Amino acid sequence: MKQDDAFNSFKDQKHDFAKKEQTRVLNPSRTNIGIISKVLLDKINYNLLSKTKLNQWKSTNDTLRWFKSLKNKRKLTFLKFDVQAMYPSITQELLKNALEFAKQYTDISDDDVEIIMHSRKTFLFSNGTPCIKKGQDNDLFDVAMGCSDGAELCEIVGTFLLSKLSDKVDKEMIGVYRDDGLAALEGTKVEINRVRNKIEKVFKDYSLKLDDIEVGKKTNYLDVILNLEDSSHQPYRKPNSYPKYIHVDSNHPKSIIEQVPKMVNDRLSMLSSGKKEFDESRDIYQQALNDAGHKFKLEYKTPSNVTNDTRKHRRKRNITWYLSLIHI
Q1: Do residues 69 and 125 touch, judged by C-beta distance below 8 A?
Q2: pTM assigned to the model
Q3: Which of 30, 77, 208, 314 has the greatest number of CB atoms lying within 10 Å of its CB?
Q4: Angstrom distances, CA of residue 240 to CA of 67, 157, 292
Q5: CA dihedral over 28, 30, 36, 41, signed as positive or negative
Q6: Which position has the higher pLDDT, 44 or 25?
């Protein structure tokens, strides 16, 4: 058991933080077998997505590819939703259902399931005594913030939920990035609201509550603003969030420092659909680079990594895990 100090993090980025203070427990004590679980789940997710073709996005690039592939954008309306407290809301039953679903598309042994479930055991200690959640008796099942395989668990659960939504929404018109979902729907306000209710019910059936549901022609998703009216997209940052970069006089390797402004420029270009959108977002990043001593002018350039599929093909590796037993 890995002995770590847990701590609380205030979710002060929420718009209603002043009225409703929320915290999350990060990094409780947990088993190191979670590292093995992460490798297993990563392989399962890769095989699952390659066969189901569901939109379980891994990055903003994936979202932009989806957005660019949408036809007749002017006729569509975004429906964006966020799963409230996704990690701690994943129940043992939901995870088992997700694994059973995944078994239809990829090989998952009983040992794999046992490792994944064992990695869910987490502890909070008070004066040397483990604390138990109310109503859980001796059940230590938890998907903890900071656990080694948390992101992979969200992905397999997200794919399972997308499969349940596929008879409510065309699977090509909806996707998720962990706990954030986005759909592009065609229809009247009444029809879209009807679909919204269906989506909420699917999540509710698995004890998940949707939060911050937004409907409109324009939305911010991850770190990009998407606009269906003119098919444009541009960088997005949260309010009161200001970029800071490595200073040119820091002791980082020179090669790293020189690459910072180039990476910023490439990223902003990738998130922008054109020079107009790039210029509208550039100033704050240019100022941050200037403050860090970089003599570099940000300029838009056509990003090939968005229009072309540059996702790396993962080479499958056979991994053997050894358990060392020491008798004293």
Answers
A1: no
A2: 0.83
A3: 30
A4: 27, 32, 19
A5: negative
A6: 44
